[in-house]
């Protein structure tokens, strides 16, 4: 069979597979389902690897096959054992990632609804194209050869002019203007000036309810933080932990530890969803923050609306346990000019070792690991 015929048949077969997937499902619905994946994956023009690999041309790709992404050993082995992503294998993997590839580092629990799996596969199929397999080099057409020769004949760019030498006796760089960058515009400064004080100063206009936040959370956050903020795998826990701060292993969540609601709003606004930061509108951040309060029983009404006006009415449970730094009031600091050298007469002496303060883990002997710490 000629190479041309094999190429045509390969393209036709792949096209039929992708057309079948797309025809049986709803691409627009798949785009909505894919929002659950955007925290870790990108697809489309200019897609780059994030926490997970980019998903362009996924159909026909060998599992663990992108050279510029670091897969788990389990995924690499699955590819070596012959796993190739197609409609059937992707449907099974999306239903139960760890059931198909035991040991995958993908934390997502899976899409339980078959319609969701079919729709998201139809959506991903629109970003996959039939590629002919690599073959031996062909003789270029005359026009192509002429173009290649013309490109090779292009002169190399002239080297950049050397910076003028500094005047004799002057330090290198003195009197020189590097002319790097430009003055930031008012709009650019405003885009970065988004910090929020605990009293609410700096909050943007907007509003969002607990009920609205639930849908935003399910689409963007539950894959990592769990349906109820309990955390999946080693992803952070957002809810619960009240009364554990005095325990040996306190559970520091938004509800048990964070002192100010402004920290919650500011952190979500700047950094979430993970891998797709700054993609939420101010209204969506308000709604998502309200839902996190709801998960921690700080608000109990699903119709509660968080806004610039209601923000200051929320008091975080652990706020009273955070104290202002009052060291400037101590006698050691109460001076016009702080002492920087020879502040205490005599030679400095060690008064106590860390082990006495129970800071350094005790030696358990026999080269065993300390009894406490991360396992």
Write the layout of secondary structure elements.
Elements (H helix, E strand, L loop, with lengths): L2 H21 L3 H8 L38 H8 L6 H9 L1 H4 L13 H12 L16 H11 L33 H7 L14 E3 H11 L1 H4 L35 H11 L10 H14 L9 E3 L68
Helix pairs in contact: 1-6, 2-6, 4-6, 9-12, 11-12
Give a count of the beta strands, DSSP E runs of length 2 or more.
2
CATH class of the domain at 195-321: Mainly Alpha
Taking all Cα atoms into account, the compactness measure Rg is 30 Å
The quaternary state of the protein chains shown equals: single chain
Q: What is the average per-residue confidence, as pLDDT, rounded to a whole number?
A: 80
Largest sheet geometry = 2 strands, antiparallel
| Structural class by SSE content | mainly alpha
CATH architecture of the domain at 195-321: Orthogonal Bundle
Superfamily (CATH H level) name of the domain at 195-321: Cytochrome c-like domain
Distance from N terminus to C terminus (CA atoms, Å) equals: 59 Å
Helical element count? 12
Low-confidence stretches: 7-24, 130-140, 368-375
Percentage beta strand: under 5%
Strands of the widest sheet, in order across it, are 1-2
Order of helices and strands: HHHHHHHHEHHHHE
